TrEMBL record:
Protein name: AcrR family transcriptional regulator
Species this protein is from: Nocardiopsis metallicus
DNA-binding region listed in the record: 37-56
Keyword DNA-binding among UniProt keywords: yes
Keyword Transcription regulation: yes
Molecular-function GO term, any one: transcription cis-regulatory region binding
Keyword tags: DNA-binding, Transcription, Transcription regulation
Amino acid sequence: MHHPPDTLHARKRRKARATIVSAAFQLFAEHGFDNVTVAAIAERAEVGRTTFFRYFGDKQQVLFADDSAEADRMCAYVLDKADRPLGSDLGAALTLLREAATVARPYAALSPAHSAVLVRLLRESIDLRSRYLLTRQQRALRLAGALIEAGAVESVAVLASHAAMACELTAMRLAENPEAFPARMDEAHGMLRTLGN
């Protein structure tokens, strides 16, 4: 992976972005998602609205701020670790995606406190749930593309990536708290593995 040099400018941008995310999560935790405006987030983060929109298209995007970077890491892992063409081996494709998720550590960019807020907001808001499902769908399609590149047949690639998405959604639904999420995720993947037995 080629990383641009870590310039002062890049660090300042990252810091500004992180400050906005942190301010938004505080406000969402206090007031719920719908009652928080972009203006309020900008004010809490001590930036202008213009600065907010330089980083995020809307307040929903703040919640899924690290999504595409996470998907990039997962796809890179799949391409890096597939030691042979996957062909029609659904089990191998799923295992690879499970490992990729662990390495990309979804929610890792989010502190446990932030993930707890996200899970609560998703329970409360149907709009957010649809946006979240859309981000998951987009990720599944990108992962399917990576699996195909790693030599999986298309049907296996698409099914594996949607099955992995189903495991994630299942874990979110069943985890009592964000800390329980990884164990529930393992459990869901384990249940799928029992299918052929």
